[in-house]
Design goal:
It contains 8 helices and 5 strands. The chain has 170 residues and is of the alpha+beta class. It folds into 2 domains: 114 residues, no CATH class; 47 residues, no CATH class. The strands form 2 sheets. It has a 3-stranded antiparallel β-sheet with strand order 1-3-2. Strands 4-5 form a two-stranded antiparallel ribbon. Strand 4 and strand 5 form a beta hairpin. Helix 2 crosses helix 3 and helix 6 packs across helix 8. The longest helix has 13 residues. It is globular, with a radius of gyration of 17 Å. The protein binds iron/sulfur cluster (2 copies).
Length: 170
Amino acid sequence: MRVSKETPIEEVKRVGDRCGRCGKCCSYGSGFVLESEIPRIASFLKIPKDKFIKDFLNETEIFHTTVFKIRSLPVDGKPYGPCTFLKKDLCSIHDIKPLHCSMCNCSEHGDDLNVWFMVNHCLNVYDPESVRQYCSYVETGGRVIPGAEVEKLFHDEKLLKQIKDYDRFR
Ligand code: SF4
Ligand code: SF4
């Protein structure tokens, strides 16, 4: 089975649950948090939303959509380090961890699961800049899962060309 854009979230979580909980990946980086997940995690930590964002997250963008990355703790001057929620090789927010952490793993499906997350939660087909960035990602060799091919997502070829050309002439 290959994960596709249309794979239901329950199936994605089931595949994503193939994790031996060794903590290795969380020792080198952290997951993304969607804006909609912030209240749930902040409530679990018993802190206000704003404090959770300020103390634990870095704001970033994927395909022109705001997402938050859980802060990691760089060690020995390296640009990466363990996730701030990793305690003794275990996730201290496991029960309520964000979707990205629940589904992305080191199995043979890991890369596709990551793309599933980006395509379904970050790509905004109503935002021309998001579309343009996705097209650029694909054109430069970014991984594509079935159902997320540019021609399948965007049927209006004329509009798509205008969106792509806009960057070249601005
Ligand atoms: S929140 Fe938990 S699962 Fe996600 S990166 Fe951090 S330690 Fe790992
Ligand atoms: S996804 Fe893989 S590396 Fe990460 S904790 Fe699970 S088994 Fe370990």
